Amino acid sequence: MVETVLLFVVPPLALYLLIALLVMAPKMARRPRYRAGQPWSYEPMWWTANPEGAGLPPAHDEPGSDAAAAGGRGGARGNW
After folding, report:
1. CA distance 70 to 64
2. What CA–CA distance (Å, rounded) separates 56 from 45?
3. pLDDT digit string, tens, across residues 6-20
4. Does the model's pTM come out above 0.70?
């Protein structure tokens, strides 16, 4: 009886446990996800919606610049 259990139960059970471990291990190894309302404890990203406030050159073409003189307006346009 013991030999039968060792032969027909233990190997499939070990295989199922190995597969479950391989599936669950990456998820358990990750950092916890940020949820809304939690304090933000990570470094700031290299992006800003206000480049002038960050001391960066403006993102749009100013009158008199090379792109404006060449007639390039950029952006999406359409007729309605």
Report:
1. 10
2. 15
3. 999 999 999 999 999
4. no
